[in-house]
Design a protein that fits this description.
The protein folds into two domains: 41-178, Rossmann fold (3-Layer(aba) Sandwich); 193-291 and 332-382, Porin (Beta Barrel), CATH 2.40.160. 27% of the residues lie in helices and 41% in strands. The protein has helices at 2-38, 56-70, 78-87, 98-108, 154-165, 172-178, 206-213, 318-321, and strands at residues 41-50, 74-75, 112-121, 124-133, 138-148, 193-204, 226-241, 244-255, 263-274, 279-298, 309-312, 329-332, 337-354, 357-366, 373-379, 381-382. A hairpin with a 4-residue loop joins strand 9 (263-274) and strand 10.
Length: 389
């Protein structure tokens, strides 16, 4: 008997668990059904397109797709709608006004109709979307958003407008890229060419600085160790991926004008710009035309003008003094011939932005044994966007 009683209790417990699980399943199903019933039926008839490469049919499809993904309305299938359009002789090329859209909604038997227009105005794309209530024949919701004119990103723009229309918060990063006019769009589809003036100053150190400051009669240049440069920057990005850009630069400059000299210089750079702040690093060859001559330092004072004084090679008279014991060197000398001088340019900096205006500020160094050069430069340039279609 005790065993039979325990068996009955066990059976009752199992039945209770089964009933509880069934109740939960039924409740979940009813809740899902009630939620489904709460969604209003809606149809996207046609969205007008002006000045875009996408026609009305394609932009209407994008709007319908984004609304289906949002899962706020029960969107009428496009094939069912096509049958009703044909049956009711609705002209999709002209049915953009409220009265026509409402009439179509009544023919479709839906509660809401979504319409609007997407139009290009110069360098902007303006998207206006509306939700019409078929019963009240009023505009229930409306959103108008201006975007930058980058048509390959049109579906993202529509996604933002749809989310705003139904009261959802879009991804702020995408909004910043497509809506925010404080900066240009960063996209793998944009290769931006930048150009503009550059100016700055540099200081020469070491033995080279001494030569610059010496009198010309001694082979010096009679120049200040600090000199200013002015030039032009040509820049092209070959990789643009969000907040990372890889670029090449060509910067011809002239310097030394404050000392009455004309020193041309050209720098070729490969650079990388990173982060929203615009930090960058670049390196490459610097080519400069300078005057150099072969000569020697008279370490033994054989010419009786001072130990270690610099002389040109032909100052040594071998017939009187014999073979020159001093080492012949090629050195900066204003009495020499113009030669090509090369250096490694290493620069770091940051590009400050104001809308489409860039203000690059850089510090750089050219390390050399005879005397390194350190300086800074700044300039400005404007983003040149790709051709719009």
């Amino acid at each position: 008997m005790p065993n039979q009683k325990n068996l009955k209790m066990k059976t009752l417990k199992n039945n209770f668990k089964s009933l509880t699980l069934l109740a939960l399943l039924i409740g979940t199903s009813l809740n899902a059904m009630s939620q489904g019933d709460d969604k209003a039926s809606a149809a996207v008839l046609s969205v007008e397109s002006k000045g875009l490469i996408n026609n009305s049919e394609s932009v209407s499809y994008m709007v319908r797709l984004e609304l289906e993904k949002a899962n706020v309305y029960t969107i009428m299938d496009k094939y069912d709608m096509a049958e009703l359009v044909k049956k009711n002789s609705i002209d999709l090329t002209t049915c953009y006004g409220k009265s026509c859209v409402i009439a179509a909604g009544k023919a479709f038997g839906v509660q809401k109709m979504i319409g609007g227009n997407i139009e290009r105005f110069g360098e902007k794309i303006v998207i206006t979307l509306k939700v019409f209530d078929v019963k009240t024949e009023l505009v229930e919701k409306q959103n108008t958003t201006e975007y930058q004119n980058l048509q390959p990103e049109l579906q993202r723009m529509i996604a933002i407008s749809v989310q705003k229309l139904i009261g959802k918060t879009p991804d702020q990063n995408i909004v910043d890229l497509l809506v925010n006019y404080d900066g240009p769009i960063a996209s793998p589809q944009t290769q931006i060419k930048l150009s503009g003036p550059r100016m700055g100053a540099s200081m020469t150190f070491g033995d080279a600085a001494k030569v610059l400051g010496e009198a010309k009669r001694n082979g010096g240049f009679n120049m200040y160790p600090v000199n200013f440069q002015i030039g032009w920057q040509f820049e092209k990005q070959y990789i643009s991926a969000g907040n990372f850009q890889a670029l090449v630069e060509f910067i011809p400059t002239i310097g030394g004008l404050e000392s009455g000299s004309f020193i041309p210089s050209t720098t070729f750079l490969n650079g990388f710009r990173m982060g929203k702040a615009g930090w960058e690093i670049a390196f490459g060859p610097n080519l400069k035309i300078v005057k150099k001559a072969d000569g020697f330092f008279d370490e033994g004072n054989a010419l009786n003008e001072g130990v270690g004084k610099w002389y040109l090679e032909d100052s040594w008279d071998a017939s009187k003094l014999g073979k020159n014991p001093n080492t012949i060197e090629n050195r900066l000398d204003s009495r020499g011939e113009a030669q090509l001088s090369t250096s490694l340019f290493i620069g770091i900096g940051r590009t400050f932005k104001s809308g489409y205006l860039n203000i690059p500020v850089n510090l750089y160094v050219l390390p050399r044994k005879e005397g390194s050069i350190a300086g800074f430069s700044f300039g400005f340039n404007i983003y040149k966007k790709p051709k719009s279609f």
